[in-house]
Design brief:
Strands 2-1-3-4 form a four-stranded parallel beta sheet. The protein is 41% helix and 13% strand. Helix 2 crosses helix 6, helix 6 packs antiparallel against helix 7 and helix 7 packs parallel to helix 11.
């Protein structure tokens, strides 16, 4: 991280103003999670509209000004928005703290490029099936006499491109982000500490209930092979026990290898049903070549296009993905 957040910095910022901190979130799902935590206290700003491609974006002057004015930034990380890292360096003059989802301690993350190697048990993927789930290290507060800035630089030197950055598509990851956000905001704004923690607990409970509900709803579709255009939904498939056969593009929209496509075709041939998903209208034609007769193609969105930004967006997004799966695989 470019800003090594310390307790002294937080206490200094909270003493300077009784107002809640100026918080900025990078994408609509993250903004929605933060908005739940800040409910009744304030509202976070949203940097990117849902229609924007988070991988490639150039800030408008108004967005750069928003970044410059923000005290707390909540974002997924460089693996999703690599351009934002340099913008933080050059523009975020008021920034006191970053909450970077890809660096949260003990947050399970899947390694990109390894999803087709998931060991499938009974046709379904689960978190235990993942061959490589890594955890980010977190600074030890100096207990090992390692400089904070050196430690953060070392973390970034490994590159977040090693990890699938779409962590928010697992509601339990969203709950973890809410808890971390409450912890940071309560240090900036101790007068509203109880509200932040109560809001985070309420949101976490909602996410647990949502997972339980959708696991039941999606159980009948666990024998259908899910084929996607883009490697963006693995956290969702795994959380809900769905059989993800693979994506026909990887990483930065790089076409899958011939061997990977052959593996996807084999998985599709073995499945009871096949459901294929384009992404925001992209990839439908290429997917048609992989499906069996009668296979359906539906469109998925992982950002929240068409949904009103705010506290309700996140749950609405997850429910919409689940509904699309049900519609696509249902006879």
């Amino acid at each position: 991280m470019r800003f090594a957040l310390t307790l002294a910095m937080i206490l200094s910022a909270s003493a300077a103003s009784a107002d809640p901190p100026r918080v900025l979130a990078d994408i609509a799902p993250v903004h929605s999670i933060v908005a739940n935590v800040m409910s009744g206290v304030g509202e976070p700003a949203l940097l990117l509209p849902a229609s924007a491609d988070p991988h490639h974006f150039q800030l408008r002057p108004s967005q750069a000004a928003e970044l410059a004015n923000s005290e707390v930034l909540v974002w997924v990380g460089e693996g999703l928005t690599p351009w934002l890292a340099s913008a933080i360096e050059t523009t975020a003059s008021s920034l006191q703290a970053e909450i970077e989802m890809l660096e949260l301690h003990a947050l399970p993350m899947l390694v990109e490029g390894r999803f087709t190697q998931l060991s499938i048990q009974g046709g379904n993927a689960s978190r235990d099936d993942a061959p490589e789930v890594k955890e980010h290290e977190q600074d030890d507060g100096g207990q090992n006499n390692v400089d904070e800035n050196e430690q953060h630089e070392d973390m970034h030197s490994h590159g977040h491109g090693d990890f699938d950055p779409h962590l928010w598509l697992d509601p339990l990851n969203a709950a973890r982000l809410a808890t971390e956000t409450a912890q940071v905001l309560s240090k900036f704004d101790p007068d509203n500490r109880e509200i932040y923690y109560q809001n985070a607990a309420r949101f976490s409970g909602q996410m647990a209930n949502l997972v339980s509900e959708l696991q039941t709803d999606l159980a009948p579709f666990q024998n259908a092979a899910m084929i996607t255009h883009h490697d963006a939904f693995a956290y969702f498939w795994i959380r809900f026990g769905l059989d993800w056969a693979g994506g026909i593009t990887t990483g930065e929209s790089i076409p899958a290898s011939a061997a990977r496509l052959a593996t996807i075709r084999e998985r599709a041939d073995l499945a009871d049903k096949v459901c294929m998903f384009s992404q925001n209208g992209v990839g439908a034609r290429a997917l048609e070549q992989l499906g069996k007769d009668g296979s359906k193609i539906a469109d998925l969105d992982q950002i929240g296009m068409g949904l009103e930004p705010g506290p309700e967006l996140y749950e609405a997004l997850i429910r919409r993905i689940a509904k699309t799966v049900q519609t696509c695989t249902d006879d």
